[in-house]
Amino acid sequence: MREPARQTTHARAAPRVRYSHESGELSASTLAAFGFGASAPVLDDPRWLRVALEPFGDPLVEVWEVDGEVHGGREGELRWSRGGGWLFAAVECREDEHGGTEAAARHAYDLLSRFVAGAAEQHVQRIWNYLGAINAGQGDDERYKHFCTGRIGGMGEVFAQGYPAATAIGHGADPALLQVYLLATDRSGTRVENPRQVSAWRYPRQYGRTPPSFARATLLPAGDVLAISGTAAVVGHASAHAGDIDAQLAETLRNLEALLAAGGLPAGIGRLAPLKAYVRQAEHVAAVRAFAAKHFPDAPLLLLHGDICRAELLIEIDGWRYRT
Ligand code: 3EB
Questions:
Q1: Residue 217 pLDDT more than 90?
Q2: N or C: which end of the chain has fewer CB within 10 A?
């Protein structure tokens, strides 16, 4: 009798994320690369995304490398690349061409959902969202809240098994510009929540009609890296330390450490944890740098000028924590 077919493939090693000073150095195994701000170079390569957030300090390029040859293409507002079992896909669109913030978010997620549903890499692990004037509008009409409604409306079948880890940040460029990009692969990761925080999709009504649809982190399929969502000074469901950058940084670090523990990663944020810090006010950059120098001096860190989706929050940090 023949043995039943065995699963012989293993989960693929996660993309390696690094920050580089060389701009535009995309190799055959580069899945995606990101420049930041208006002075980032313009490259005619679907793997190259110019993120509409201004960097503080040296212009760095974020590079994702995979184990395998990468190819990519474009389809209208969507571009993609794949290699080594990983898929990068991004949509850039204008809200004024799609009926406003909510409709544009629905459109972007609909495009991405359909594309991923037709791909071999159907498991979305991580997603980033950058929209303009994120805190403009009052109460339920704040633009971030409209974005949340559109986002969930456009999330198709590929999101039905659970939400990916995510970041949603406001940029200061053209307010109509929406940028959404994701990382997916061919098997599911493990969603990780933070025991110090109410899961975002269970936030009470006071934060809007539609709760934000994201997980706090994803342990990628091989278990080799934790992809960490935008993390801020939120305890339970409440924002902590309004107006106090140092206290918000300390609370954010506690949340990051809680996430590492919840994800089963070794404690400590160092050279194996490339991070991005989104800073609302330029005057807080020195405080952020000083905090990082004291608490995680070895972590590769990129500082970006961005608005956090709650007006009282001054700082948010996201990134990756590799096991080795
Ligand atoms: C929070 O903890 C802060 O809407 O995708 C962090 C990460 C936040 C992702 C999102 C929002 C999002 O609620 C805000």
A1: yes
A2: N
Ligand 1 atom closest to 318 (CA): 7
Q: Whose CA is nearest to atom 7 of ligand 1?
A: 230
Separation of alpha carbons 139 and 1, rounded Å: 67
Would you call 257 a catalytic residue per the annotation?
Answer: no
Structure-token match 């004037």, residue found:
133
Alpha helices in the chain (DSSP H): 101-117, 143-154, 245-263, 285-295
pTM over 0.90: yes
Q: Which residue has the tokens 């055959």?
A: 28
Matching residue, tokens 């409604």? 149
Residue 232 has pLDDT above 60, yes or no: yes
For residue 2, report the distance from its CA to the centre of ligand 1, in Å.
51
CATH class entry, domain 16-322: alpha beta
Q: Which residue among 54, 95, 251, 316 is the active-site one? A: 316
Quote the CA–CA distance of 191 and 187 in Å, as a whole number. Answer: 13
Rg (CA), the chain: 19
Ligand 1 centroid–CA 318 distance in Å is: 10
Average pLDDT, the chain: 96
Report the alpha-carbon distance of residue 52 to residue 36 in Å, rounded: 6
Q: Which atom of ligand 1 is nearest to the CA of 229?
A: 7
Ligand 1: atom nearest CA of 313 is 3
- For residue 320, give the 3-state DSSP assignment: strand
71 Cα: distance to centroid of ligand 1 (angstroms): 31
Establish whether residue 48 lines the binding site of ligand 1, counting it when its CB lies within 6 angstroms of any ligand atom.
no
